[in-house]
Amino acid sequence: MDEIEPIPVGKFVQALRARLRSDDRNQHCLLKGEISQWKSYPSGHTYFSLRDDGGQINAVIWKGRCRIPDDVKDGQEVLVIGNVDLYPARGQLQIVVERIELIQKIGALEQQKQKLLAQLRQEGVIDRPRKSLPMFPKHLVIVTGKDSAALADMLQLSQSRWPGIRTTVIGVTVQGERAVEEIVRGLAVARELSRESIANSLASPPCDVVIVGRGGGSPEDLWAFNLEAVARSIATMPIPVVSAVGHESDILVSDLVADVRASTPSHAVECCVPLIDDHLAYLMDCEDRMLQGSLRQFNDVRQRLQQLKLRLQLAPSKGVSQAVRYLERLGNDLHQRAAATLQQHKQQLAVLGNALQISHPKRVLERGYMMGTDDKGKVISSVSRLNKGQIISLQFADGEADANIDNIRQHEEET
Amino acid sequence: MTEETYSDALRRLEAIVAELERGGMDLEATLQRFEEGSKLLERCQEELKKAEGKLENLRLPDAEAMIDEARKE
To answer: Are A393 and A373 in contact (CB under 8 A)?
Structure first.
């Protein structure tokens, strides 16, 4: 097996360079990009990077190879014609520039825009508190391209949302040389319309919201809305201003200084013009709820009244019958209690009667005892009351007999 | 009616509606709320309906001329 010869790296890079340079596609390329890391050396050579969001490549302008525009700076967009080359000492791909041009218009305008934004930010215009939009604008002023499609869209949408809204359109030129001046003048008219005195003499409500804008277009077409005069006119307006320029993705200075930024002219109308049917429907709903609520209240009160009335009607008879029932109950109780007491007493009497019967002296005599009485009929209960020769009477159950006392024997008293 | 008073009127109306829906009021209070609510409602509806729908589509020079005229008065 043959060994693969290693290639010295220098040779490899040189071969690569030859291959790159031999391809026509790598020669005289027209490129567009932004300058970064621009650096001119005393040697007269200039190095920089050409970049955009997709990538970047190093570039070199050899001394005297091409004219370099004045005021070249990082961040500027340029058109470059050049050849792809490989710098062997570093193995670095680069464009050897044959020609370089600033994309003057946009580059300069963009710079101007950034400068204006920086200034406005410093003055506090960008971060100032914003005015809020009226809930129901009395007089909407639209400053936009006369007879433009954007205007037609806005008017149609506005009509469908609130046909009653008072609207004044000020048709201006929105692109080209005259655009800035006309937009500023249009805004000045809006400012006048917001004055009470002017509105009064025009017999209209004062303007209380302004839409300024235009439909989509190229960056150059929209550029008037990036300029200072328009920005300042918007920022100093005494009533809220909605900026609506181009499409969603276009962000202009006017958007950044206005009270509200709408992404499109139609969106501006959505911001400013209420859907009046929604509000009327809501009010009708309120009315309905208020009626229902009140009726329920009345019904509650009526029911309470009816209940009260019923109770009042029933009250007297109910009272009497209650009293009668109470008395009846009382009477029954009394009767029952009396009967019970009587019964009790009867029983007690019977018991007592028995007891009395049992303890009667006659009953004792019947059991074989006898009772002695003196001549006065008094029961003799002790021998101490007897004398020798005394005649006493002996009571038997079935008769009596006289007895003569012979001996008296008294028992010793027990201690 | 200014915008503030419209919002105030609406807020007051909403409060009354809530109160009436909650219930438990006597007859006099109910009547009083209902009358107040009706007035507020009428004012709000008028506000929305009274706009006359006038549209003026002017070119800039005409608009400026209109302002000049108004200034003279």
So the answer is: yes
